[in-house]
Automatic annotation (TrEMBL):
Pathway per the UniProt entry: Amino-acid biosynthesis; L-arginine biosynthesis; N(2)-acetyl-L-ornithine from L-glutamate: step 3/4
Principal subcellular localization: cytoplasm
Gene: argC
Protein name: N-acetyl-gamma-glutamyl-phosphate reductase
Coiled coil segments of this chain: none
CDD domains xref list: AGPR_1_C, AGPR_1_N
Organism field: Paenibacillus tundrae
EC number: 1.2.1.38
Length: 349
């Protein structure tokens, strides 16, 4: 007898989608019953992704909410911003549970969403219905809900690195500067000149300075935690690697705190959370130490000369920054162990 949860993936032919397949194939309570494509339905997914030969046998299905609801109980939408906003209402109406990986439902103020994403905002009702699924902060709210908005990749690394210190009042929120770097898979699979090998190899490229769509997402959560509006300086850079985000954050300390005290504060905050690992003082994380896994690793350095704190936080953008976190949300929604299907040791070297 098969009583597994039936799961469909829209956007299964993108980087987030194929990463969902990699993890869900090993999930003990899940069966992938439909992989969906708007451009290649009827084809085998192995045509475009030979590494999935023999893994997914069923051909790609088309994007029809009623048909999806006939095959699945829950759907992941790993679709571009703007596309999810149009697609998700029909999926919810068809009775499906939805975990959306795009930025479309994360910003709770529709006017702010339109300012940063340049697409028409979803309805206010849907924006309020979507739970912002950062499991370590809002895990209790995710439980038993039907519609989750999965956090962005940069906000995941950044917020997990900042929130405990902001909540404790140990740093001045108005002093926060975030210097973040991402591998190119963060931009998705769609071709664009900026991501060609000759453009990116042996190159570091700053982009969207002070205009990045993740700024309001980060500020929304920090404002919530701090209890008053927070604005941040946020710099994003492409670096010549495939996966990984390193977010390096700087802030002025309030009072005197040592590296040891910070480690203890963060370990207490993330006690019993399986995917945040806080480093001993003087041991800072690197992206390779989390590649292919759902871990977020965090390290600190207090500079007593300046009174400033540096926080370094790393994730794999496709796992903790997207598909792994989405499965973590699935586990919490369904009342399962948070780490089911996600106990992958990082790929090293
Ligand atoms: N890459 C990353 O590190 C992260 C990505 N995200 C977000 O996750 C989402 C997916 O990202 P990613 O996988 O990288 O993106 P990709 O560009 O790699 O894939 C997106 C997929 O969406 C599908 N798609 C495009 N238009 C439509 C449509 N109208 N209807 C249905 N499906 C459509 C396409 O497949 P097809 O043509 O076969 O339908 C495509 O393969 C995005 O919103 C992204 O911002 C979030 C965090 C991190
Ligand atoms: C390297 C790179 O280009 N990364 C993307 C992150 C995409 C993402 O996560 O965007 P959503 O908020 O729409 O989900 C970017 O900076 O826009």
């Amino acid at each position: 007898m098969n009583n597994k949860l039936r799961v469909a993936i829209v956007g299964s032919t993108g980087y987030g989608g194929v990463e969902l397949i990699r993890f869900l194939q090993h999930h003990p309570h899940v069966e992938i019953t439909s992989v969906i494509s708007s451009s290649s339905s009827g084809e085998s997914i192995a045509v475009g992704f030979p590494h999935l030969t023999g893994v997914i046998i069923r051909p790609l299905d088309g994007v029809d909410p009623v048909e999806i609801a006939g095959r699945a109980d829950l759907v992941f939408t790993a679709t571009p911003s703007g596309v999810s906003a149009k697609l998700v209402p029909g999926l919810l109406e068809a009775g499906l549970k939805v975990i959306d990986l795009s930025g479309d439902f994360r910003i709770k103020d529709g006017a702010v969403y339109e300012e940063w994403y340049k697409h028409p905002a979803p309805s206010d009702e849907l924006l309020q219905q979507a739970v912002y699924g950062m499991c370590e902060l809002y895990g209790e709210e995710v439980k038993e809900k039907a519609f989750i908005s999965n956090p962005g990749c940069y906000p995941t690394a950044t917020l997990l690195g900042l929130v405990p210190a902001v909540q404790a009042g140990w740093i001045d929120p108005s002093s926060i500067i975030i210097d973040a770097k991402s591998g190119v898979s963060g931009a998705g699979r769609g071709t664009n000149l900026a991501y060609h090998y000759a453009e990116m190899n042996e190159n570091f490229k700053a982009y969207k300075l002070n205009k990045h769509q993740h700024i309001p997402e980060i500020e929304q959560v920090l404002g919530h935690v701090a209890g008053s509006p927070v604005t941040v300086t946020f710099t994003t850079q492409l670096v010549p690697m495939t996966r990984g985000i390193m977010s390096t954050m700087y802030a002025s300390l309030v009072g005197e705190h040592t590296d040891r005290e910070l480690v203890d504060l963060y370990r207490q905050f993330y006690e019993n959370r399986p995917f945040v690992r806080v480093r001993e003082p003087g041991i800072w994380p690197s992206t390779k130490e989390v590649t292919g896994s759902n871990y977020c690793d965090i390290g600190f350095s207090v500079d007593p000369r300046t009174g400033r704190l540096t926080i370094v936080s790393v994730i794999d953008n496709l796992v903790k920054g997207a598909s792994g976190q989405a499965i973590q949300n699935l586990n919490l929604m369904m009342g399962w162990e948070e780490n089911l299907g996600l106990n992958m040791t990082p790929v090293y070297p």
